[in-house]
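check this one:
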Amino acid sequence: MCSVGKNMSIRSKIEDLLTGKFLTWVNQLRLCGPFRFNINRFIFRCLPCYPVTRNEKWDFILGYLPYLSFMYNISKLKVLIVGCTSSLLVYEIARRRYLTYGLDIRPYQEKLPNFIGFFQVDITKPLEINGGSFDFIVATSVIELVEGDGADRKAVENVHKMLNNEGYFILTLPTTYWKSMTARGYTLNSFRKLIEGLFDIYELTQRGGYLCAVLVKSQ
């Protein structure tokens, strides 16, 4: 490795460590959830060597939600965020007046306010949640992490069951190039196979090594 590359690698590791410690400290403060969420976004923008794609994924989700719901009364639209145990996104969605729910196999990292619902369940298993309950389901960097052969397909099938017929599924998935050692990576073909027969693509783009998609139920 050249000296420049080595120096950048060391710098990235230092920034990772400092950012992680600072975010942990911020989360321990008794600040409202949306404020902490926006502090996190500011930190990620200041340290682009850390998770540069995280803000891009959030921008995609938060940009599409109002676009897709502009004709409706937002306070009556139900949004489910899958894999949210350590994410502050639930607070930001609730701040925007959506009926907000979270779902994760683990408990949420802190006590949630009463106006945010939470389901502690495995997204790959049969769910005791009313079918067609949600207008939007959001899964950012979650589906690729579920464990087991075909588990990602099972997760998408359960999302299909929970989404109402006019609803939208907003998700992000890492491309094969950007996948981590513990996650799947997707090509355009494998992504299409993942959603085949369940969803059609409403919008698809790539940001920072991630596929970012808005899907609708197949007719």
About this structure: The helical segments are 3-28, 33-46, 52-69, 89-95, 151-162, 188-195. The chain has one domain: 52-217. The first strand starts at residue 78 and ends at 82.
